[in-house]
């Protein structure tokens, strides 16, 4: 990668630009003629025909500069972890997965605790995950009394 840009990626034609270009800081296109475009915005990238018709203007490769991540104190926000390092070794942080999949609070809490239990609070985190599962069951079954009856708990 040069100056934050990806390497050139081959393009064999398709209906629309590749998804990874959405929201990028900029892109360049290489045409069958051998020429390359200048720096393009996402709107400009979308306006090109990505289908191949055998002409000199067929897009045969592209590269792009991914959008920068928000920063805090000069560092990407996801690189900052408050209160430990239990997520630092993961390929993807739970919050990234939860946000990308539009997962709700209760389910997200389960994911968070189950992901970190070995590296943070052990069995206590598993109990917290179970608590959020119980809450989810209670809400899905229609209220507070449903889970109290099943577990024998009285509130």
Which secondary-structure class do the elements indicate?
alpha+beta
Helix count, DSSP H or I runs of 4 or more residues: 5
First-to-last CA distance: 59 Å
In terms of per-residue confidence, which ranges show pLDDT below 50 for 5 or more consecutive residues? none
- Fraction of residues in H or I helices: 25-40%
- Mean pLDDT reading: 81
Number of strands: 5
Strand content: 5-15%
Order of helices and strands: EEHEEEHHHH
What's the SSE blueprint?
Blueprint: E1 9-10, E2 26-31, H1 42-47, E3 59-65, E4 71-72, E5 75-76, H2 94-100, H3 105-116, H4 123-140, H5 144-151
Antiparallel strand pairs: 1-3, 2-3, 4-5
Helix pairs in contact: 3-4, 4-5
Comma- or semicolon-separated keywords:
5 helices, elongated, 155 residues, 2 domains, 5 strands, two-stranded antiparallel sheet, 3-stranded antiparallel β-sheet, alpha+beta
């Amino acid at each position: 990668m040069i100056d934050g840009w990806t390497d050139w990626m081959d393009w064999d034609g398709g209906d629309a630009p590749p998804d990874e270009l959405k929201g990028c800081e900029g892109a360049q296109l290489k045409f069958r003629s051998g020429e390359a475009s200048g720096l393009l915005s996402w709107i400009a990238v979308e306006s090109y025909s990505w289908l191949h018709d055998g002409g000199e203007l067929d897009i045969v490769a592209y590269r792009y500069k991914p959008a920068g991540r928000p920063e805090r104190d000069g560092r990407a926000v996801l690189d900052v972890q408050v209160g430990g390092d239990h997520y630092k070794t993961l390929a993807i942080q739970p919050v990234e997965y939860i946000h990308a999949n539009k997962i709700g609070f209760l389910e997200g809490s389960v994911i968070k605790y189950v992901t970190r239990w070995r590296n943070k609070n052990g069995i206590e985190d598993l109990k917290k995950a179970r608590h959020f599962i119980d809450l989810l069951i209670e809400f899905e079954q229609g209220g507070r009394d449903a889970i109290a009856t099943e577990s024998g708990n009285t509130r």
